[in-house]
Amino acid sequence: MANKTTKSLKKIKAYIFLKDVFLIAISAYGGPSMHLALYQKRLVEEKKYLTTTDLLELYSLAQMLPGPSSTQTLVSIGYKFGGPFLAFLTLLIWVFPAFLLLTVCAIFIGLFQDSALNYLRFVTPVAVAFILIAGINMIKKSIDSKQGYFLASMAFVVAALLRHPLDTIINMKTPWIFPIVLVLGGIISYIGHREILPKHEPIKVQIPWKFLVAFIGIFVSAGIFGNLYSNPFVLLFENSYRFGSLVFGGGNVLIPMMLEQYVNHAGYMTSEQFINGVGLVQAIPGPVFTISSYTGATAMQNANLVSQIFGSISSTIGIFLPGALLIFFIYPIWKQIKSHPIIVKALPGVIAASCGLVLAAAYLMFLPVGFNWVEEGSFYYTNLDTHHLVNIVPILIIIITSLLLLKTKIKSPWYIIVAILAGIFL
């Protein structure tokens, strides 16, 4: 009887924990910082599942890995209480509300494209302001050295100002420019780190290699099958899995990679459609990485409804799977690797470069919004429409929204709601 009672109590505890995760998921607006505040309030202060120190340590772990940081923090908490199975259920419940809402939004926009895009025309400049301020805030919080500012500037120049010249000079019209910048940031930071660190102790616990093997195996297999068969669902999965494997710094760093891949490189959607998705994800609770649900469905907009749903599913699985596998691999050995010299020395450079990439995303998103171009998608100054050069209204919206984001505490969904209402009635 005692064993049965204990087992029942464990099941009830897991159920209650998952219910708390769901309540957070439907109220988690505002990105990783707001998500962390919700974890602190619900899981630490109200339910006392863990301490503030525990939470911050798990958040630090997520910051040191590629993938969605707030999602990986929550998955780590699930792993702490119930191992991989509870962590997996935690991930499903956390992602599902945003996945569902963004998939429905993408399908609706695809069905009523002309009218929907017209109603969302003011969402686009608001989304640009969101990314711009996110980049500024990241720099304020994450960079405290001259080297960090240099690496952020380098990333911005390469990914934004040199983006279009590089297309012509070395044919670098490829999303790989972003991970290359991140790797270079880590290498420069590692080389330039002068502080002598304590000797690293070898790992003494059993290492769960199977999750790392799965992470690498899926990465390689998806790339091979995507190139061999060109199946759209495999390609969407591969693109998303690659993003989830390479993005440091959270969802805002994901935006420039997706913009490059889906708009400029593969042509799955227009820049306006993509930027509207960036705006919508700010109005919907849940992780920013669920923009992959929107892009997956939008990429299949010329196919049938079932294809759009499967496009969303394959993209959503692809974007979150690598981060989960890395948590399953790293969490059991976290305490012994967090002080490894390579991580300590290289990570600041990766984060600094990530900040520059977010600002680059804001710049690249601004180009089609703020200016008029003779040939759509070609952003060379010789392609500017000199008769109608500047779009005054979107630029004013970007400026006003940016100032409000900096100076007030208005929640992000309200900006999107007002923008949609303005698009409907004006």
Q: Could you outline the blueprint of secondary structure elements for this entry?
A:
Blueprint: H1 2-25, H2 32-46, H3 52-63, H4 69-111, H5 113-119, H6 123-142, H7 146-161, H8 163-169, H9 177-192, H10 209-229, H11 232-246, H12 251-265, H13 271-283, H14 291-299, H15 305-330, H16 334-337, H17 341-370, H18 392-407, H19 412-425
Helix pairs in contact: 1-4, 2-4, 3-4, 4-5, 4-14, 4-15, 6-13, 6-17, 6-18, 6-19, 7-9, 7-17, 9-17, 10-11, 10-15, 11-15, 12-13, 12-17, 13-14, 13-19, 14-15
- Note the run of SSEs as H and E: HHHHHHHHHHHHHHHHHHH
Spans of at least 5 consecutive residues whose pLDDT stays below 50 are 1-12
- Mean pLDDT figure: 81
Helix content: over 70%
> How many structural domains in the coordinates?
1
Overall spatial form: globular
Portion in strands: under 5%
Strand runs, count: 0
Content-based structural category:
mainly alpha
Largest sheet: none
What value does the Rg take, in angstroms? 22 Å
Number of helices: 19
Question: How widely separated are the two ends?
Answer: 68 Å
Q: Key terms for this structure?
A:
426 residues; mainly alpha; disordered N terminus
Written description of the protein model:
- With 426 residues, the protein is mainly alpha-helical.
- It has one domain (93-196, 203-369, 385-425).
- Helix content is 76%, strand content 0%.
- The protein contains 19 helices and no strands.
- Helix 6 (123-142) packs antiparallel against helix 17 and helix 13 (271-283) packs antiparallel against helix 14.
- The longest helix has 43 residues, at 69-111.
- Residues 1-12 have low confidence and may be disordered.
